[in-house]
Amino acid sequence: MSTVQQPDPKDRPARLAVGVVGAGRVGPALAASLQLAGHHPVAVSAVSDASRRRAADMLPDVPVVPPAEVLQRADLVLLTVPDDTLPGLVQGLADTGAVRPGQLLVHTSGRYGAKVLDPALRAGALPLALHPAMTFTGTPVDVQRLAGCSFGVTAPEELRMAAEALVIEMGGEPEWIAEDNRPLYHAALALGANHLVTLVAQSMELLRTAGVAAPDRMLGPLLGAALDNALRSGDAALTGPVARGDAGTVAAHVSELRKHAPTTVAGYLAMARATADRALASGLLKAELAEDLLGVLANEARSYGAEGDAR
Q1: Longest dimension (CA), the chain
Q2: Residue 248: count of CB within 10 angstroms of its CB
Q3: Are 100 and 17 in contact (CB under 8 A)?
Q4: Is 86 in a helix, a strand, or coil?
Q5: For residues 95 and 223, what is the distance between their CA atoms, to the nearest angstrom?
Q6: Cα angle value 275/281/283 (rounded, 5°)
Q7: In Å, how far from its chain's centre is CA 172?
Q8: Got the DSSP string for 127-175?
Q9: In what order do the strands lie in the sheet with 173-176?
Q10: CA-CA distance, 117 to 88, in Å (whole number)?
Q11: Global model pTM greater than 0.90
Q12: Is the separation of the CB atoms in 154 and 188 below 8 Å?
């Protein structure tokens, strides 16, 4: 059950007309969540067929219009576009006079804080950066996942209460992130979530190669326990051959990966070295065992590099 407390009525924003610029996976979900809180989605911009379908599924009966028209109709505008697109979009909207004074302009980029909205701020908009720390599917399940989801919030101090109230209305937990810390915050999330998907996908492929019929069923309980232990205990949750200093086992792993999945070798060696460093620093890996293990990793890395150069 979520521990989110609803804001005091005097701190809640008025019911707002909500617009979405960019019907990717995030925007429609946030707008649908705000609709459940009593706000009114009034317009969405969508270009591709996939984004149009997503808008129709998540925001039925909400008209699809150009971005400038979204801003004309909405009091609260969600700018849910790729990070690299955001600065140019904001500048273009400001330069063309699409931004209205007093309009809440919210972007959902993890990389940027509120300063990327400065062109709109100069046009009189109220800038908010609200980044949901969640992976999205582009389906209605995303609205449910927002319950208890942390949001990285960056905004001018005078808009802090409004930003936090909007997050809480979406069922989220506001976490204040300083402007200068946004890139580090986003890197941390990418390291933990995006790279996890790659690791799990590689692991499932290797299990299939090893003859496992249902790798997802095998990995589910293991990964669930590992994640729970890591969140509870940090480095103390480290287990496996690297943390134990089993240099021979690690060498055997690399040998098999070279045969069956050579593209995974570099990632395995990098993660094994990072794991060894953390296990050694936390006292889990004994110094006398670490020397052989680190020697194996260094030799394998040199060998892999030589093979890569040869190719």
Answers
A1: 68
A2: 11
A3: no
A4: helix
A5: 49
A6: 100
A7: 14
A8: EEEEEE-S---SSTHHHHHTTT-EEEEE--GGGHHHHHHHHHHTT-EEE
A9: 40-45, 17-21, 76-79, 104-107, 126-132, 150-154, 173-176
A10: 10
A11: no
A12: no
Q: In the structure encoding, which two tokens stand for residue 301, read together?
A: 């890395």
Place of tokens 């706000």: 39
Identity (one letter) of the amino acid at 168?
I
- Tokens at 132, concatenated: 């949901």
Work out whether the CA dihedral 186, 188, 190, 192 comes out positive or negative: negative
The DSSP symbol for 44 reads E
Q: How far apart are CA 18 and CA 26, in angstroms?
A: 14
pLDDT in tens, the chain (311 residues): 444 444 444 444 569 999 999 999 999 999 999 999 999 999 999 999 999 999 999 999 999 999 999 999 999 999 999 999 999 999 999 999 999 999 999 999 999 999 999 999 999 999 999 999 999 999 999 999 999 999 999 999 999 999 999 999 999 999 999 999 999 999 999 999 999 999 999 999 999 999 999 999 999 999 999 999 999 999 999 999 999 999 999 999 999 999 999 999 999 999 999 999 999 999 999 999 999 999 999 999 998 776 655 44
A 10 A CB-CB count for 1 gives: 5
